[in-house]
Recover the amino acids of this structure.
């Protein structure tokens, strides 16, 4: 076994493949089939251990579903019979109240897998690749067209280092790299100028998420440690998600709504 973090070092220096997220998603989708096949063929003590492990995983998943998925349902209120006459038009009516009950667990699992949120902008306009990436010609006679200039706002982390220009495929202009955003807290009705931690999901494509491109409807992670938000246990919340509500490349700033 290797004693050093060779893979991690290589990732830090040269980055990941641009289809890494897509390959990871497909690999995760195959896991269910591989687990099923393994469970059908395993036997003996190994099967007992595997079934015990799966039992724990399912129990944890059910607890998560109970915490997250709730909906309103009407039910009868059992009240004592009141003294006095009741009008005829009220005899067939029953008092109802709403109680939170567990909903369908399959829907919740699908929602969690898809990574869906209750967001201010559920739908955004689709963008073609030509609108986001501009072809840059290179080579001695300007015949090579494998380079792309990103024409939208992007975010890169503090430890980002450009590749040598000769080998850089995706060029992020310095003028379109943003590190801060104007975030509106919907409950406090206040706007804060906060640092961006990263890009969680761009609805246009997984590749744009990987490249850190920020367009309208993108989910970004914001550093909210300045706001003093705490959990029920008293721990300080450092990062929360927010959705971009404007076109940053046109306005010159990133405006976002905090997902509470």
């Amino acid at each position: 076994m290797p004693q050093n973090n060779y893979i991690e070092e290589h990732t830090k220096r040269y980055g990941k493949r641009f289809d890494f997220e897509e390959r990871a998603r497909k690999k995760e989708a195959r896991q269910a089939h591989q687990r099923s096949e393994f469970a059908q063929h395993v036997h003996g003590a190994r099967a007992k251990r595997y079934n015990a492990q799966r039992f724990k995983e399912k129990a944890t998943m059910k607890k998560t579903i109970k915490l997250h998925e709730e909906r309103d349902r009407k039910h009868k209120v059992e009240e004592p019979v009141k003294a006095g006459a009741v009008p005829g038009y009220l005899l067939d009516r029953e008092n109802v109240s709403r109680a939170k009950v567990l909903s369908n667990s399959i829907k919740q699992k699908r929602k969690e897998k898809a990574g869906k949120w209750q967001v201010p902008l559920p739908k955004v306009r689709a963008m073609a690749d030509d609108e986001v990436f501009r072809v840059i010609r290179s080579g001695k006679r300007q015949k090579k067209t494998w380079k792309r200039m990103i024409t939208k706002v992007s975010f890169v982390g503090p430890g980002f280092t450009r590749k040598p220009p000769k080998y850089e495929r995706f060029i992020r202009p310095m003028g379109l790299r943003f590190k801060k955003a104007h975030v509106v807290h919907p409950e406090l009705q206040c706007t804060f100028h906060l640092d961006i931690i990263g890009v969680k999901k761009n609805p246009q494509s997984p590749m744009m998420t990987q490249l850190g491109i920020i367009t309208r409807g993108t989910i970004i992670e914001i550093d909210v440690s300045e706001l003093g938000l705490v959990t029920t246990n008293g721990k300080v919340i450092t990062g929360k998600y927010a959705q971009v509500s404007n076109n940053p490349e046109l306005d010159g700033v990133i405006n976002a709504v905090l997902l509470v």
Q: What stands out?
A: The first strand starts at residue 70 and ends at 76.
